[in-house]
Amino acid sequence: MRIGVLTGGGDCPGLNAVIRAVTRKAINDFGDSVVGFLDAWDGVLEKRSTELTVARLAGILPRGGTILGTRRGSPYDLPDGPAQVKQNLADMGVDALIVIGGNGSLWVASHLNEDVGIPIVGVPKTIDNDIAETDVCFGFHTAVQIATDAIDRLHTTAESHDRVMVVEVMGRDTGWIATYAGIAGGATAILIPERPFDIDDIANEVKRKHSRGRYASIVVVAEGAMPKEGTMPEPRYDLDPFGRPRLGGISVEVAHAIEERTGFETRVVQIGHVQRGGTPNAFDRVLSTRLGIAAVEALHAGECSTMVGVRNEQIVHVPLSEVVGKTRHVDLSLYDDVATVFFG
Ligand code: F6P
Q1: Residue-number span of the structural domain to which 302 is assigned
Q2: Ligand 1: residue whose CA is nearest its atom 16
Q3: Which of 129, 172, 174 most suits a substitution to test ligand 1, by most atoms within 8 Å of the C-beta?
Q4: In the predicted model, what is the mean pLDDT of residues 325-337?
Q5: Could you give the C-alpha distances from 24 to 21, 162, 295, 304, in angstroms and in order?
Q6: Same-domain status, 190 and 219
Q7: Which GO terms fall under biological process for this protein (predicted)?
Q8: Using CA positions, which residue lies closest to atom 4 of ligand 1?
Q9: Residue 318 contacts residue 307 (beta carbons within 8 Å)
Q10: 285: DSSP letter
């Protein structure tokens, strides 16, 4: 079999580990050949690719980013995009694709299979951890560790100056990183998209903590968090070239409102793309490796529209049609029964 691999959407620690595992498993165990498409779907549409061999991929396991490059566009942005993908794969002798991507890339994968019959296996990738039908996405635990390390450092400077630190983390539609890093970092409050917040409640949590003689607080806010209607002006965002709100900056509004309501000096830290860069942690290296191997096995088992994921520590194969169009939100019992116990 000749397998094509691509990485789509935002980058994420562990992408190279998946590419390495796919290549090793396919070549060494099945005698396949593997071609990597450059810059996601652009590479398929423009026939830009690179031959992947075991020797070429030596040393990429711990490397962040993706050696193949990534983009957010889709063949469905072009009227004949899906047909062109099919034609180009046929021209290049590619029998099947492994698509390593988030909700957007998996949507494209599912539709390409339905519309033009390309055999595709998806591998769930995103630091946001919001893909349905898997317990975890690779990259998430690395991002949580980076955010937690940042919060640990912010505690000492906040304590030295008696300040409130509002720490913004990624999380477009879900508050997974905020919830995990907030719990791990001992946050005074955590703001997530799943629970619209009342800024007065948050200010009161901060005051409650300071009334006990602890004059520093960390408030963690996911970039996609929203105030309850009518409690604070809703943030407005420009759109990126793909029509998605370019998030970032809610922390500034939150910090301003907290300072105004409490009188405590408040600072803002946006961790931003630091969360996505650099080496994957050990957990994500193992997860990426397992998923890469499972993707090749799925193709050889004749699965032509599947996502490989993890359920209760076991690898699962799920039809792509059951994955797309859904968002895996934060387990609210984790938020309500664990995180909030430490608020204020
Ligand atoms: O990968 C998902 C994500 O991290 C979101 O949380 C964030 O909104 C987005 O990527 C930002 O990505 P970019 O700056 O690459 O558009």
Answers
A1: 2-139+280-322
A2: 10
A3: 172
A4: 97
A5: 5, 53, 12, 21
A6: yes
A7: canonical glycolysis; fructose 1,6-bisphosphate metabolic process; fructose 6-phosphate metabolic process
A8: 170
A9: yes
A10: H
